[in-house]
Amino acid sequence: MRCLSFLLALLLTLPATAQDRHADEHSYAQPDQVRIRDLGLDLAVDFDKHQLAGTATLQLEWANEAARELVLDTRDLAISKVEARSGKRKWREVEFALAQRDERFGSKLTITLPRQYEQVRIAYATSPQASGLQWLAPSMTSGGKTPFMFSQSQAIHARSWVPLQDTPSVRFTYTARIRTPADVMALMSADNDPAAPRDGDYTFAMPQAIPSYLMAIAAGDLVFKPISGRAGVWAEPQVVDKAVKEFEDTEKMIAVTESLYGPYRWGRYDLLILPPSFPFGGMENPRLSFITPTVIAGDQSLVSLIAHELAHSWSGNLVTNASWKDMWLNEGFTSYVENRIVEALYGKERADMEFVISRNGLKAEMAQIPAEQQVLMLPARVGSDPEDALGAIAYDKGAWFLQFLELRFGREAFDPFLRAWFDGHAFQSATSEEFLAFLKAELMAKNPAAVTEAEVMAWMTAPGIPDFAPATESPRFAAVDAARADWLEDRKAARDLKTSAWTTQEWVYFLEGMPETLAPERLVELDQAFRFTGTGNGEIAQRWYPLSERSQYFEARPAMSLFLRKIGRRKLIMPTYEALAATADGLAFASQIYLMAKPGYHPITSASVEALLAKAKAAPAQ
Ligand SMILES: [Zn+2]
After folding, report:
1. 395 is catalytic
2. Average pLDDT of the residues in 586-615
3. What is the dihedral of CA 144, 150, 154, 156, to 10 degrees?
4. Nearest Cα to 584, choosing from 550, 545, 622?
5. How many angstroms does the Cα of residue 335 sit away from the middle of ligand 1?
6. DSSP character at residue 268
7. What is the CA(344)–ligand 1 centre distance, in A?
8. DSSP letter at 418?
9. Strands 428-430 and 319-321
10. Separation of 310 CA from ligand 1 center, angstroms?
11. CA distance linking residue 105 with residue 579, whole number of Å
């Protein structure tokens, strides 16, 4: 996933415990007793009720002869019946108990079986408030005529639409039959057929075993256009051509990644372009990455997001963090591979600019989070929200550590090492401890002078960034620094700066280097020269609107309000909400905007905005 959650400081409140790092404290499941091996879904999509209803059939593999209980994760599911059987025998109804709902983890479902049946079938329906589903009225889509729904299961939201073992340490294959209104197309993280007739009755198979957070479904007015023989775009008809053009390099990205890390093992690789309310940049649902439309910039400047989601086909989907404490094994590796893909396709200058921007974000985030959370190898934290681990530490410190290893060992040793890690752990879950052991045996032992164990452990278990971390220089950003200084020190007017060749990365860096506030008339000058207010580029808007608000440049507010109401991608809008929440007047304005925006926001985005506004109201600023 690409999101860089921004509100970590609000959430990181729970103390570390000494619990075993190998357990998954975010799931009720007991995979040491019994594991799901296959899931069969038969669900109807009801857009009026905002509900999925039907059955989930689980194939079980028992690990302990004495076990008679199957414990599953659920959240807000209405369970009407549970049956069990072995082989093709008759289904027999069995007892189940749904525990009281925990705010964070949902309700533990305990199914008591008289013996070790091979299959369990659960009849259930989801709640309209399911945390992993969003239901959009036709008015919230590009076409305006057909409703839209989609899932977001990572980290622990799959349990809100399927009863299962919701832990990345369990993998299973799945099949599904999905029924929708006849004019709606349904897709899953499975073998979507570009030629499937649109008739409201769809079947899917996912033959590779995946963890629960990669379960995904979407339904709406979706059409397909190919990019290559194995890659293409699903999107609303109004968006599909623009998306195919923007992401035309997808096949090249697959080929580059294969040349570095071995074959793409999932069959097709398609992109699903979601409506603007999608709370993240992208989600690496296997065979079908879910993508925010906010990266369709018109100039391919934000396609590193596609590189990121594609990279997860190796780091994350193929080799998966065994629990969310080891999130950096997914996101740090993926951010590193993303940068390698960008370098191979678009050159080192662009890759370096992207590293610099993400590391500036990392430094800003580190200033807000406690030291014990600044480590890659997080301690077990019972009761914590697993999304706490979804911050810049896992992504950018993780990628920085891998770049450090690459530079010390050299690509000729490091690239084959990484490929061997993916090959050797394919379709398995892994822990930080396993990676460390592999690193020591396969890289450090063979090149003993390159890196010390103390250096490795400084990355893994010490807060902050080691002082021996490699620095990334960007000559193109040095030119931006010079231009900004010329303007700030009145040597040049904004319109005289040489910006015609700047890409999104340079504009982002230009704005991020501005002082905390500027005189409003200085922002007028920037706006007249560069038309930032009302920009269609979300990355620029993400930096411009907070600067305007801090600088009390209120002329930007109407466009800011439109931006906050149209876009639901958390990373893009949260900085503006935060800037607004810093003053009493801004907080009132933000609360008004949120009321209007909320019906179009995903529950994940709403929760973040509400937490921010509530915190600001509890401790008024001025
Ligand atoms: Zn990711």
Report:
1. yes
2. 95
3. 120
4. 622
5. 7
6. -
7. 19
8. H
9. parallel
10. 9
11. 31
Rounded to the nearest angstrom, the distance between the alpha carbon of 279 and the centre of ligand 1 is: 13
State pLDDT tens for residues 386-445: 877 778 999 999 999 999 999 999 999 999 999 999 999 999 999 999 999 999 999 999
pTM of the model: 0.95
C-alpha 524/C-alpha 330 separation (Å) is: 43
Of 14-23, 44-53, 439-448, 586-595, the poorest mean pLDDT is in 14-23
The answer to whether 262 and 423 are in contact (CB under 8 A) is: yes
Q: Which segments of 145-213 are extended strands (E)?
A: 148-151, 171-179, 185-188, 201-211
- Is 65 strand, coil or helix? coil
What whole-number distance in Å separates Cα of residue 469 and Cα of residue 490?
36
What stretches of 446-570 adopt beta strand conformation (E)?
A: none
State which amino acid sits at residue 555. E
Q: Give tens-digit pLDDT for 457-515.
A: 999 999 999 999 999 999 999 999 999 999 999 999 999 999 999 999 999 999 999 99
Dump the DSSP string for 143-155. SSSS-EEEE--TT
**135 neighbors 152 (Cβ within 8 angstroms):** no
> Angle at which helices 603-618 and 584-597 pack, to 10 degrees?
160
Which amino acid makes up residue 7? L
Distance, CA of 125 to CA of 570 (rounded, Å): 28
Question: Position 282: which residue type?
Answer: G
Determine whether 117 is an active site residue.
no
Task: Provide the pLDDT confidence category of residue 621 given band limits of 50, 70 and 90.
Answer: low
Q: Which long-range contacts (CB under 8 A, 24 or more apart) does 409-413 make?
A: 409/443, 409/447, 409/450, 409/451, 413/443, 413/446, 413/447
User: How far does residue 17's CA lie from ligand 1's centre (Å)?
Assistant: 27
Phi, psi of 205 (to 5 degrees): -135, 140
| 309 Cα–ligand 1 center, Å | 6
Token digits for 97? 């108990």
CA end-to-end distance (rounded Å), the chain:
37
Catalytic residue among 83, 309, 338, 434: 309
**What is the amino acid identity at position 57?**
T
**Paired strand residues for 71:** 110
Of 117, 124, 174, 395, which residue is the catalytic one?
395
State whether the Cα torsion 272-277-281-283 is positive or negative: negative
- Please tell me the distance from the alpha carbon of residue 515 to that of residue 485, in angstroms, as a whole number: 11
CA distance 474 to 348: 9
Proportion of the chain above pLDDT 70, given as a percent: 96
The rounded distance, in Å, linking the Cα atoms of 136 and 290 is 16
Per-residue model confidence as pLDDT tens digits over 334-358: 999 999 999 999 999 999 999 999 9
